[in-house]
Design goal:
Helices cover 37% and strands 11% of the residues. The protein is built from 11 helices and 10 strands. The longest helix has 20 residues.
């Protein structure tokens, strides 16, 4: 288990963390900003009292410059920001260059000894913690069947999976979660309940479907292992899973988020969305409604890579909470999960 402080996310918010409705709504948003010029998000952070930021893109900037930018942005925050990026390794590595060596792909690490995986994750996490990154949107807990491989656009095509056997992937996920969180960076298991069997990418298509997944799916093993290892967060997929929910994509699905992840699998940490901004999977719904549907289904932290989504998302959450007592209670609960992630990251102590 991680040496980061544990918490009980289902309990009420600590008294010294009491927030107004506007502040709670802001805490439920993680908004993207260009990693090469992140200070451009300063106004949105202050105006909408954001809970987190996502460093988007790719950069070879030195650690000192990145650290200075993150510290400057933290100065605009109501509570310290969760600072996130995609530092998986392989084709998905936000920071590279002299201060951030190349990380092998998950597939390559999964084929190697556990000690190599542990060392790579530890080194990367320590470098991220050193500049003020608090949460890495990794590891990928998706399993890609061997007979699909690169024909799976979001994961297999980029070799982002640790393997094709969910039992073996589960072992790697446990190693990765523990190594990262022991080194000071929270982890995010993604993309629940799994993207490894889809034939479309949710970033570029609304047709991503896994018609196989069930509540007893063996491909849930890596997520279960990561939860048992203490992962602070789980990211919801934006694909469809008709055997689990015949109506909504996973990010908007109460049966999947609340029923499967929370109740059946016992996860009581932070639930974050995959990108709800530019992703085609949710493009037919307004940005504000995307945030509302995600939170209503049981989600906590709505991620959009588009800075312009901060306003409509915040306003929609506030408006709904003011007119719907049940939703207002859900906002309270979600804000509590965000605050407890910040406690685990040692950003606040309330």
């Amino acid at each position: 288990m991680s040496d980061l402080p544990s918490s009980s996310p289902s309990s009420p918010q600590p008294s010294s963390c009491r927030l107004s409705l506007e502040q709670k709504a802001g805490q439920l948003l993680m908004i993207g900003t260009d990693v090469d010029s992140p200070r451009g998000l300063a106004d949105e952070i202050k105006r909408y009292q954001l809970g987190g930021i996502f460093l988007a893109g790719r950069s070879t900037r030195p650690a000192a410059a990145l650290k200075a930018d993150i510290q400057a942005l933290q100065g605009n925050a109501t509570t310290p920001l969760l600072v996130a990026l995609d530092q998986e390794g392989g084709s998905v590595q936000t920071l590279k260059g002299g201060d951030f060596p190349l990380i092998p792909s998950a597939e390559r690490l999964g084929n190697g000894p556990p000690d190599k995986l542990r060392d790579e994750v530890r080194d990367s996490a320590r470098r991220l913690a050193g500049i003020g990154v608090t949460i890495n949107l990794a590891p990928v807990a998706d399993t890609v069947p061997a007979d699909i491989g690169e024909a799976n656009p979001p994961i297999g095509n980029f070799h982002r999976q640790y393997g094709s056997d969910p039992a073996e992937v589960a072992k790697d996920i446990e190693v990765a979660v523990t190594a990262s969180q022991d080194s000071g960076v929270l982890t995010v298991l993604k993309h629940f309940p799994g993207l490894g069997r889809t034939r479309f990418n949710t970033d570029t298509s609304a047709q991503a479907v896994d018609a196989t997944a069930t509540a007893n799916d063996p491909y849930l093993q890596p997520f279960a292992a990561g939860i048992k290892a203490g992962s602070a967060s789980v990211m919801m997929s934006s694909a469809s899973y008709p055997k689990l929910d015949g109506k909504d994509i996973a990010a908007f699905s109460k049966p999947i988020i609340t029923g499967l992840l929370r109740q059946k699998m016992g996860f009581d940490g932070l639930v974050v969305s995959d990108d709800l901004g530019a992703a085609k999977a949710a493009a037919t719904i307004s940005p504000g409604e995307r945030a509302v549907r995600f939170v209503a289904a049981g989600g906590d932290l709505a991620l959009s890579i588009r800075p312009e989504d901060a306003q409509p998302m915040a306003e929609a959450l506030i408006t709904r909470a003011r007119t719907d007592p049940a939703f207002a209670t859900r906002v309270d609960d979600a804000a509590g999960h965000v605050l407890r992630a910040k406690i685990r990251a040692r950003q606040i102590s309330c």
